[in-house]
Design goal:
96 residues; mainly alpha; 2 helices; transmembrane helix
Length: 96
């Protein structure tokens, strides 16, 4: 077979390009203290009061995020409506 050299080159390339697999449970290679990665929380080991605090914090963060999204969406829609209205007013054509 005439493809032995290309297959062996492919296998050698695959072997050299392998990367080390990282897991969430392996702390090696993961910088936990940065803002990008949140520390792993084992919910099975939390006390009832800590679990309640965590749930409330998650709900509060979710509410704040939703309010921001709704606010930014409303502002964008108002700006878009004004721009469309100005385009039609400047063109001299009626809106309907």
């Amino acid at each position: 077979m005439g493809f032995g050299g290309s297959v062996s080159a492919m296998l050698a390339t695959l072997k050299t390009n392998k990367r080390e697999r990282k897991s969430r449970f392996d702390k090696k290679g993961l910088d936990i203290k940065t803002a990008k990665h949140k520390p792993f929380i084992d919910f099975k080991k939390l006390a009832a009061s800590e679990e309640l605090k965590l749930k409330n914090q998650i709900r509060k963060d979710s509410r704040n995020h939703n309010r921001k999204v709704i606010g930014y969406t409303a502002i964008a829609l108002v700006v878009l409506a004004v721009l469309i209205w100005l385009l039609f007013v400047d063109s001299g054509r009626p809106l309907v």
